[in-house]
């Protein structure tokens, strides 16, 4: 008997173009209460994209799909961070990076219309700004900006910090909800080279006291470029270091999961 995996069904409320390469989609549906209940500012969901031309069981059960349908009918899952939650109107937003017809989720978001349906698994999450930290250091590329925006809105009163955000073009910069005591530095990416962001981070003044770090985005940069700096050189304890890769150049999310698993095994062996 297959293990039941029943996704929530989302409905598109509206869409808006935030930047030339960023589309915001507002959703509602039965999954809203689960989204609103999360306290983490990096709350995320797995969106389920079904293959065309197959009859899926209704109600949709991904456990049944996995056990009974052929490989070509297996849905594609893509992980996205919640950009903001609108409790009054029972809706929430997800920002999609869109580069033409590249990928699955981006093109879907670019053509989404009110009323379109999309299954969702989750949510999950693991980070929220510590009220005990003396300083908050937030780093990320376009994929991390939703979580950074949510974190800034949830900062405790009197918090201080800095944001280093990477985009491919000045037109892709977004206006972040900076509290008093925070500043943002946008860094320009050239092609697949993230060295400018790492250079900016490691050359930034290091504050006194307990520093809470959030560094998410392209995995090679975050896990092999920034993690050794924050955890090794700056001795940020694990409890105050949320460092993770959301994606990696040239890999689908499925291949990226394998890369992350291999990296974790390598780390365990060298520990």
TrEMBL record:
It comes from the Bacteria. CDD domains: siderophore_interacting. Residues 5-130 form the FAD-binding FR-type domain. InterPro entries: FAD-bd_FR_type (IPR017927), FNR_nucleotide-bd (IPR039261), Riboflavin_synthase-like_b-brl (IPR017938), SIP_FAD-bd (IPR013113), SIP_fam (IPR039374), SIP_rossman_dom (IPR007037). GO terms for molecular function: oxidoreductase activity. PANTHER family: FERRIC REDUCTASE, NADPH-DEPENDENT (PTHR30157), NADPH-DEPENDENT FERRIC-CHELATE REDUCTASE (PTHR30157:SF0). This is Siderophore-interacting protein.
């Amino acid at each position: 008997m297959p293990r039941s995996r029943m996704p929530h069904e989302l409905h598109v409320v509206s869409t808006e173009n935030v930047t030339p390469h960023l589309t915001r989609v507002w959703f509602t549906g039965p999954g809203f209460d689960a989204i609103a209940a999360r306290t983490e500012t990096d709350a995320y969901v797995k969106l389920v994209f079904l293959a065309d031309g197959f009859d899926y069981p209704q109600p949709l059960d991904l456990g049944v799909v996995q056990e009974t349908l052929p490989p070509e009918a297996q849905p594609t899952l893509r992980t996205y961070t919640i950009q903001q939650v609108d409790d009054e109107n029972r809706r929430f937003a997800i920002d999609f990076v869109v580069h033409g017809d590249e990928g699955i989720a981006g093109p879907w978001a670019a053509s989404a219309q009110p009323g379109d349906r999309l299954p969702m698994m989750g949510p999950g999450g693991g980070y929220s700004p510590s009220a005990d930290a003396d300083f908050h250091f937030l780093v990320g590329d376009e994929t991390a900006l939703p979580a950074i925006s949510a974190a800034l809105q949830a900062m405790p009163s009197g918090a201080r910090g800095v944001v280093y955000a990477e985009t491919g073009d000045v037109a892709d910069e977004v206006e972040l909800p900076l509290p008093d005591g925070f500043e943002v530095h946008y860094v320009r990416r050239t092609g697949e080279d993230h060295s400018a962001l790492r250079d900016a981070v490691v050359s930034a003044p290091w504050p006194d006291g307990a520093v809470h770090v959030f560094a998410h985005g392209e995995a090679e940069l975050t896990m092999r470029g920034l993690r050794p700096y924050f955890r090794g050189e700056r001795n940020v304890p694990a409890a105050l270091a949320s460092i993770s890769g959301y994606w990696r150049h040239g890999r689908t999310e499925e291949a990226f999961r394998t890369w992350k698993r291999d990296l974790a095994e390598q780390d365990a062996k060298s520990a």
